[in-house]
Amino acid sequence: MNLAQKLGFPEKTKLLIIHADDAGLSHSENMATIQSLEKGIVNSYSIMVPCPWFYEMAVFAKNNPQFDNGIHLTLTCEWENYRFGPVLPIKQVPSLVDENGHFYKKREELRKNASSDDVRKELQAQIEKAIKFGLKPTHLDSHMYSIGASPKFFEIYRDLGKKYNLPIMISGQLMEMVGLNPDHTIKNGDLIIEKVHFGVFEYFESGKLSDYYSKVFENLVSGLNIILIHPAFDDNEMKGITINHPNFGSEWRQIDFDSFTSRENIAKLEESDIELITWNDIRNGERTVHNKELS
């Protein structure tokens, strides 16, 4: 029995999660994420616990348990002038930070410098901080999929999913993107996302990112699909954070927000044969909310 059948759908059903990464990154990211949930078709999001705006998003999550939310496990910080580091004291996880005490910008630096012990301690501390705050996460995923920087880090990710009884985002596509071999990493019994849909720089650079999103529902496959977006506003805060980083920059994130709150795209989803599900449905083994009622 596959996932669709477990949730009460026909075997070949196209299941979909529309997921917003990076909540907690900034006030702009938080406000756009909240509006995407309340007014758009985003039905899942995950929070970056180490970021300065975690508190604001965590309060929203506590007060709005109807929205599916997970922990966006964070080991890297890619921005030029906006820097942050671990939730644990640096002396407890020294291999995770650069000379200024911030997370490394690139997965390659993380792979080269980080110890498995420090990775485990920090990721567990992020989960524990969220739970202590009163959050009830529905899943675990990973910022920049940095848990794929090393097979050892990925096993820690898998172990934490088991420890906290939370599904984890596993995708052969994402593994290949970060240089991890899916054939050596995916195990029997893993919940696999059949297809991950996300914008790429080529679309953005050519002005066709909105077009990609408007057609994304036509390209879903049978089984579990996920659309990964990063909604925020093209405002001064996000321009400062994403300076000299056009991929997933402020303009890109505004397009993400606009596309998934668009009446046109909402209508396309409503008219489709796609079934929206959440990570919580997957965790519970049953569909608990009829998310298709979007109007």
Cα Rg? 18 Å
User: How many distinct beta strands?
Assistant: 7
**Kindly state the mean pLDDT as a whole number?**
96
Largest sheet: 7 strands, parallel
| Helix run count | 14
Return the CATH class.
Alpha Beta
Q: What is the strand content? A: 5-15%
Q: Helix share of residues?
A: 40-55%
The figure for the number of domains is 1
CATH homologous superfamily heading:
Glycoside hydrolase/deacetylase
Shape: globular
Which architecture does the CATH hierarchy give at level 2? Alpha-Beta Barrel
Encode the helix/strand succession as letters. HEHEHEHHEHHHEHHEHHHEH
Runs with pLDDT <50, length 5+? 290-295
Structural class by SSE content: alpha/beta
State the end-to-end distance.
Answer: 32 Å
- CATH fold-level assignment: TIM Barrel
